[in-house]
Model the fold of this input.
Amino acid sequence: MPLIDPNHPLADLLERDQRYPLDAYLFVLEALSFAQESLGMGEQEKSKDMQSVREKKKSEKHVSGQDLCEAARQYAQQQYGYLAIKVLSSWGICATADIGEIVFNMIDMGQMRKTSDDRREDFHDVYSFEDAFVKDIVFALPESL
Done:
């Protein structure tokens, strides 16, 4: 497990909620970045205060719960291939609802933001891990052994 500065906000969260290790939180943050940068997901965040929008160096994009789950699926497959389901489950991520729990833990501690429309339920049953990571996997042996 990676070491974390005890003063970092995640250190307190990891102490309070031990369902998910640091790697699970890092994975969700990486999946969010993957969604925004590689997949182009997310809408520009709307703000009534145009002054604050102009002052932002880089506009932030909001990614829905369903889109983040899809990005996490693609990112996990890209990073871990056929082992994706095993890697994620070793971190306690066994369903899309776990991604939502991690996201809302980070929202509660100020590491992520949400809109008034975002709900934990947005992450529930987006897809089955069995279907997303196991079903239709075909292992082919070379013909000449």
User: Anything to note?
Assistant: The longest strand covers residues 43-44.
